[in-house]
Design goal:
The structure holds 2 protein chains of 2 kinds. Chain A contains 10 helices and 22 strands. By secondary structure, chain A is of the alpha/beta class. Chain A has a 7-stranded parallel sheet, sandwiched between helices. Chain A is elongated and about 85 Å long. The chains are: A alpha/beta, B alpha/beta. Chains A and B meet through α5, α6, β11, β13 and β14 of A and α3, α4, β9, β10 and β11 of B. β17 of chain A pairs antiparallel with β11 of chain B.
Chain lengths: 400, 262
């Protein structure tokens, strides 16, 4: 695959230069020159040069077949917010360590940040053999193009065989861009990872159709084998003060990154500080709460349990709580250790978002509510009566 | 403003059934619909067009019958429908799909904005939007819940994050993926439906778009499905009813036994 200028045919008319949206063409010494790093093979210039037919795009089969043996080791992307490593990243380290041990390979942690040297070193204690840390003043917050550029560079330099990242808002928005660039295989939102140590293959299992079907996906002929991984499914790494490893700090060469997006503002809308995708316990309310004031009962129970507040689509659509709290197919997918569904009847869409929770308690006055089909403990009762008493009981236990 | 919306035909959500023996989807008799997240993309494109003028082109990749989702979009107010259909595209994963869509979009002339739904409800990957953006060399913002400003050269949007939203500015042309919160899609008017019925659908195949034949379909797809299976259904545990104090005590003891509270 490539683009070529036949200099015999080219007359240096610059029609191609004008046609190029990527600014990839210059006329040098009277002949068109195409910068292939900018060219995206859109063929606009081929069209512009119809008269002289000096530009051709060849579409032969891939001749640069990759040598799979060049790729080794397991890499994990370490997500950070405001200089603090995200919880999901410890899960990636825990799982990555396990896979690396099974393969007899190294675990590499990749961190993009600013003045995070100490946190970077800590990653070794959480299981990394090597930490690839890029330190730059521009890396305090997530930036689409910058992240994609630096992680693509990491992949090209370090050639990991496996690359894992949390299936977070950030991970799921920029990791696909890297897979697109390097022609890697990417499996979204995995809930289980395994390796075949013989073939050095990653087997990523993931839910599709809102959890109604599971698929195990492999990437046999391309590298890296990439996966985004759902929160709270993998076990977080445990700190080992005695572990040793290597920290390599990289700097960003000035002017090498073309960041096209600008973050104008960052606004927090969740009511509590607990992120529902990272919470161990979620107390969730639905239509059965009746009216907005009653939603306070959900918040009170959540507070005493140290839980996050969730909601069904019905509660969000009624305006009782912001969309950021919605659990289900059109909201967030969660898998806490404990999910308490209050006044939620259990639509297929809602259950798709929470059925993989470790333990589900459902409180509903309708004994035939669908939610009871997946609840480990079903409480047939009126939420308006049960919740205040429940909060009181937990408050008494915790002494709050 | 020239807007392209990428949509997918999916089985109607609640009707998904799985053959428990083979673990495969039963698609027979299942109505195909526009992926719900793509409905928000179509609606947003039409709203922009109504505000600033321009055209809305709808692109879908799929079998010949996927034409019906293009007509649904035209009924809502889109101008043109493009069906990318060829046996050579069969077996495409998200990489090959992104690649094929980007090759098709290159044939559509000048584009200012591409809008996709955040993900399709069958695959749930959310990978094709960013894939298309990257392959076209366009800037990209995911999870857009609101367009604050848009003009010929830039767009300012709100991007949903786990704990709130970011306000992000991006030059155009560019690509965004949208979430449900962005709008409430309209219903098709009778006039729109009539127009859709007679609209010409443009069909693109592997030779009429800009692609390398070795990178499409199964051959171009890095990932392969090793197996699919129906997950073990939770069967539901104990269900109790009774006086409130009894219920409360049961919940408290269960939660304490789980050891989840600190």
């Amino acid at each position: 695959m490539g683009i070529k200028v036949d200099i015999e045919k080219c007359i240096g008319c610059k029609l191609c230069v004008r046609s190029c949206a990527q600014n990839a063409i210059e006329v040098v010494n009277g002949k068109a020159f195409i910068d292939t790093s900018k060219c995206n093979l859109c063929a606009a210039c081929v069209e512009a040069c119809k008269k002289y037919q000096a530009i051709t795009i060849t579409k032969e089969a891939r001749t640069d077949a990759i040598d799979l043996s060049e790729f080794s080791n397991v890499a994990v992307f370490i997500e950070q917010h405001d200089g603090k490593v995200a919880g999901v990243s410890y899960e990636m380290l825990g799982e990555g360590r396990k896979l690396a041990d099974q393969l007899g390979e190294k675990l590499i942690a990749v961190l993009l940040g600013n003045e995070m040297q100490q946190a970077a070193e800590e990653l070794i204690k959480y299981g990394a053999d090597k930490v690839y840390y890029v330190d730059d003043a521009n890396l305090t917050t997530f930036k689409d193009d910058t992240y994609a550029h630096l992680i693509t560079q990491f992949v090209n330099n370090e050639k990991p065989s496996i690359f894992l990242a949390g299936a977070t808002a950030i991970g799921r928005s920029f990791i696909p861009k890297i897979a697109a660039t390097v022609w890697g295989g990417l499996v979204a939102d995995c809930t289980k990872l395994e390796v075949d140590p013989e073939k050095k293959l990653l087997l990523g299992t993931r839910p599709a159709f809102g959890g109604n079907l599971m698929a195990t996906i492999i990437c046999p002929h391309h590298r890296p084998q990439m996966a985004t991984v759902r929160h709270k499914v993998m076990k977080a790494a445990v700190k080992d003060e005695h572990r040793t490893g290597e920290l390599v700090v990289h700097k960003v060469a000035p002017g090498t990154i073309n960041e096209r997006t600008t973050i104008v503002d960052i606004v927090k809308t969740v009511e509590s500080t607990i992120n529902i995708t990272e919470a161990d316990i979620i107390v969730s309310g639905g239509r059965g709460m009746g009216k907005p004031e009653n939603f306070a009962l959900i918040r009170e129970l959540a507070e005493v349990l140290g839980a996050a507040v969730g909601a069904s689509r019905a509660a969000v659509d009624s305006g009782w709580i912001p969309y950021a709290h919605q659990v289900g197919q059109t909201g967030k997918t969660v898998c806490p250790k404990l999910y308490i569904a209050c006044g939620i009847s259990g639509s297929v869409q809602h259950m798709a978002g929470m059925q993989s929770s470790d333990f589900i308690i459902a409180i509903n006055k309708d004994p035939n509510a669908d939610i009871f089909q997946i609840a480990n403990l079903g409480i047939v009762g009126d939420v308006m009566e049960v919740l205040p008493e429940l909060t009181k009981a937990f408050r008494a236990k915790s002494g709050k | 403003m020239n807007i392209v919306v990428c949509i997918k035909q999916v089985p109607g959500t609640t009707q998904v059934r799985i053959n428990p023996e083979t673990g495969t989807l039963i698609r027979d008799g299942v109505e195909a619909v526009v992926n719900p997240f793509d409905e928000y993309a179509i609606e947003e494109a039409i709203r922009i067009k109504e505000r600033v003028g321009g055209t809305v082109k709808i692109v879908t990749m799929g079998p010949p019958q996927a034409e019906s989702v293009l007509r649904s979009a035209i009924a809502l107010g889109a101008d043109e429908g493009y069906l990318i259909s060829d046996r050579a595209f069969a077996g495409s994963d998200t990489w090959a799909t992104s690649y094929t869509l980007s090759g098709a979009i290159r044939t559509l002339g000048k584009i200012d904005l591409i809008i996709c739904g955040k993900q399709a409800i069958d695959g749930d990957t959310a990978q094709v939007g960013p894939g298309v953006a990257e392959m076209l060399g366009l800037p990209f913002v995911a999870w857009v819940r609101k367009i604050e400003e848009i003009n010929d050269s830039k767009i300012k949007v709100e991007r949903m994050m786990e704990e709130g939203y970011d306000v992000v500015e991006m030059p155009l042309p560019g690509l965004i993926t949208v979430v449900k919160e962005i709008n409430t899609p309209r219903m098709a008017s009778l006039k729109g439906k009539m127009r859709a019925k007679s609209a010409k659908i443009n069909v693109l195949n592997a030779t009429s778009i800009v692609v390398d034949p070795s990178r499409i379909g199964l051959k171009g797809s890095p990932t392969q499905v090793l197996r699919s299976f129906v997950p073990e259904r939770k069967t539901g545990g104990e269900k109790i009813s009774g006086e409130v104090p009894v219920l409360v005590e049961k919940i408290v003891s269960t939660v304490i036994d789980l050891g989840v509270i600190k």
